[in-house]
Amino acid sequence: MSPQGVTNPRLGDDELLFSRDLDGRLIRLDKATADQLDDEVTIVIDDRAIRVARAIPSVDSQGRPLLDDVGRVIPRATTIFDAAEFLTDAVAIVEPDGTTRNDETGRVIHRRRLPQDPRPARDELTENPIPILCHQPHLDPVGVCRACVVEISRIKRQKRRTERKLLPACQHRVEDAMEVRTIATSPRVKTTVNMVVELLAADHPSPCLKEQTSPGTCELEALANRLEVGVPRFAVRPARTLDKSSLLIAVDHSACILCDRCVRSCNDVMDNQVIGRMLKGYEARISFDLNALMGQSSCVSCGECMVSCPTGALTFKGSVGNDTFDGLDPPAEPVSTHQLFEHLDPEIRRAFSRVSPAFLEFNAGAVVRRRFRPGDIVCRQGEFGATAFFIEDGQAEIYIQGSLKEQPKDDASGVFGFLKRTIGALRPTPQTEGRDFYLPDASITLSKENPTAILEKGEIVGEMSCLNGYPRSATVRAGLNGCTVLEMRRNVLDILRRSRSFRERMDRLVRERVINIVLKSVPLCSTLNSSQIKDLSKKAKYRRFDPKEVIIRQDDLAIDPTNPLADGMFLVRSGFVRVEKRQADKSVDLNYLGPGSYFGEIALLSGFSPTELGLSETELGIDLNEIRKLSEPGRRTATCSALDHVEIVQLTAEDFREVLKTAEPKVKRSVISSALARLESNLLAARAQPKSFDLPQIDVENRSPLLGEFLNQGLMGAQSVLVLDLEKCTRCDECSKACSDTHGNVTRLIREGLRFDKYLVASSCRSCHDPVCLVGCPVDAIHRGPGSIEIQIQDSRCIGCGRCAENCPYGNINMHQLDELMLSVSSEHQPPMRVARKATTCDQCHSLPGHQPNCVAACPHDAAHRMEGPKLYQLVQAATDFRVNSVVS
Amino acid sequence: MLLNDSKNRPWMIAVAIVASVAILWFAYETIHGGVRLNGRSTPRVAFGIAGGLICLFEMLIWPRKALRKWGQKFPIGSTQLWMRAHLWLGLLSLPLLVMHGGIYPWGGSLSFWLMVLFLAVFFSGVWGLAMQQIIPGKMLKDLPGETIYSQIDFVSAQMRIEAERIVLLTCGKLGDDQLDVVTHSISVAGKARATTTKVAYEAIPNSEPLLTEFKSVIAGFLCPDPIFAHYLSSPQNRPKNPPRYRVPFSPLRDSQTAFVYFRGLKLLLDKAKAAYPAVDTIGDLCDRRRQFYQQRRLHRLLHGWLSVHLPLSIALIILMWVHVFVSLQYL
What we know:
Chain A has 889 residues and is an alpha+beta fold. Among the domains of chain A are: 522-687, Sandwich (Jelly Rolls), CATH 2.60.120.10; 706-888, Alpha-Beta Plaits, CATH 3.30.70. Chain A contains 23 helices and 42 strands. Chain A is globular and about 95 Å long. With 331 residues, chain B is mainly α. Classes of the chains: A alpha+beta (889), B mainly alpha (331).
């Protein structure tokens, strides 16, 4: 996405404050600045006042903040539309009975749909009073349709003056003491907006293709009806061409109102750079590449343009297969778009209010209703979940089986399995004295005495597992009266997250859950009781880092309250962290840290005196002095950076000191002695010669450090790497042939890749801990298997957009051109989807009995193995040590 | 399969025991009888039956391999189990069948040729096994740049295109038609979209000798013309198999002479020292191509024995059935 203020404007336009960027979009020349993020102004919209910051952080479509080259947040000016959004969120009060009231007047503001009205009903005042057509909250504003114009008055020369012109709220910045009138309170604005919409409607066939297929889904016609515009008085624009060349999307240029939403979705959200504008005046229209037909352009058919199109200009020609929930017990019932928009539960209704109907129609079956009988399992702990649940009715109970790190493994069979289960049943259950269970997939902390909890309707559960690809950490069971849930796929959750209010609600939940679970899982906090944990969790910070982002830098101060980003210690919730030390002009990799570990404590221990930590005159005090001797007190001894997507909980230095001071002696001993051991080991590693993996061609001067290469290849997060022992491998290609036999004569592995000593890491899916290939699939065709780690691509859903292949950093997903157009599974009501290519990746032959991948099973020479990344590292290290010793001796 | 593998130890011990017992029995019967055992003696018939069954079993690895899909659905044993059994029972068959033949002489012409055939099959297999012990290690050591055997020619064509681009850029001869070649090379590499990358590179004056040498020596070595023409043709019109070719006679075939050649080329480019990095890059490409040629040789050594082993095995089985039929006439 190119946020406002990042694209270089082409200067020389006549407009004073505005110019056009390279894409021809209107942008402001005066950029928002970082200090405006904290500078608040008061603005009055329709007689309701709200205080907002002058600028807010730029975010992408999923709400992730955009950073500049040095890692600072890029500010974006707060617009009047943004302020109206904040105001709407602030005033909407949801009553338990499902009605929505305004907090000031108490007036009921949710109107139920009339039976004869085919259009979705609207929560008239719970939605923003400023209508939008060309704007979407997740897109950069361009102000081309002017449906959002408002009347502005502001103080000029000590006098309040109303602007002569009406200005677009999507783009106009907030100012202090600004008063804004919208269509709700200003007849002038109402008349103007009506005129704008009438003019747009005249350029648009009514009903358009979208409206014909699904009434109420064309945003322009819905807005015209809402404003009671009626039949346009102007001459209707002559019909334009209909482009049906794409297999997936029909382009009706007659229905296009040139709002540019498709252009921004294609270029900014998906970064495909296919759609643009061409010609001018009445001839202006959207084009694909250099005016190619859509089917002949470089369009990858991801469907994002179609989802964002407010009219019937871009419509889908078929919908994706909806067989995902087939064969489930209890069975999945289809949920229509109208049912979601009109849902009785206000939380669910609000969550779906911003979702494009086209998206839900295209992904028919992505949200289903399931009615669980009392005691039925909704989702099971330890399974990989590809769906999240909205509790629609009834209650659900949550419980966990054993500690969070001991996931149940019921796969042992035969005599040994029987013995294992018997012995396991005889063992006492692990005790967690004085501590509560915590469930990251639910918003409830469970006490040890009663490890079950109740989730009420309107609550969401299972979303973390659905989004991050980790196994579910709790089992959810239907309550005494059963429960009804809306089960939805990851792509639905992604779309829901485009709504700021939903995103903030989810982020808040995730933040609370992560901080709690991390604090309760570290030995350092093991002696704290619930209230102490609660206090600490309020002060702890939850932070997320992207790959290669630096978390702490070597030689920085560790105890520095003025620099809250660097102050304190860090607990890793998920992802991997690289620990490296700078020596002379090069960096040496010391170690890497995975989930459950912590770092930053060495500098804190050396920065505080033994007295400050209550350790003087003890043996621990001596260890502490040793740490101070080996490192520069209070300074970071190494640089830590994210290797993949990392979630961190940060404790301030002062909190760390307090916790350590009050901790039991055994906890203190453990923390300090492990810090000392880590420091000594780091010093040794930094002094040691880096080891080479490219032996036996020993080149001492130029050899690469093994650990660095291992980390650069992301092998630390691999759960199932295909490794070939090249000393045994006769290059017979049986592995590739077996793979090809299993997968319709298309192999999913390439017997080439990086070498580590005598081991070759073949190009085949590794089932990463952090599967970035799952992110952003527009139809959620790719996910993990329910009970295992492999990544599966559902053939019936894949639309061949190639997003997963682009996301995979290791090139292990391939796109295959289909000779004959493949028809996906279709239902009675949906036309079949046709695609020209499909993505394929190794699914570890999950459908075969025995679950051994065929590439490994077919190797006659015992050369092919599947293993975890760290296991490979151990093997390579052992082989390298052996060779080095042989050469030396 | 590497013999130096702990998983082979049980097989090794079992085969050694069975072979020892068979030899002791044969020796005992021979010494005890005082005369050479005839073909109808119990040990020789027993060894013949056992050896014949082993030969039949050895042949079953062929259909097992061809019908590998069955192995996914039916419990017919793992591929490794079959390979170990093939290997060790095959080794066991030698003492059994030699003793079945009465050690020496091997009887009539049918028996003689059957034994010759068996020994040819046996030693071709042993040769293959020996190659499997040596060559993978050698390839690991000597060929860090090896690629998939069937892709050697394709990768070579890519390397020639890459080298050509470097040379033309260096000499300032990259015209529109050559740009097409660059674009084509990218599209055949399987990318979703054919894109042309802008290369910021300035032509180096006096670097023409590089182009001359490339055309006369380097291009043909990197990828012989028939192969290059094969891969430049459009995928739709391309024959399934590339034409056969021999390793071109070139100073670049050997690393020593290649070193001398590139040193000489640098001397020719004495007035265009800025072209040296390009020469080094082309030298690296030639080095990798040399590895491909060596890989081809080693691969043929590693797998070539199968073209002897397999047809002879079929002939052996046919002749074995004739031998059984003829032998039964004498009972």
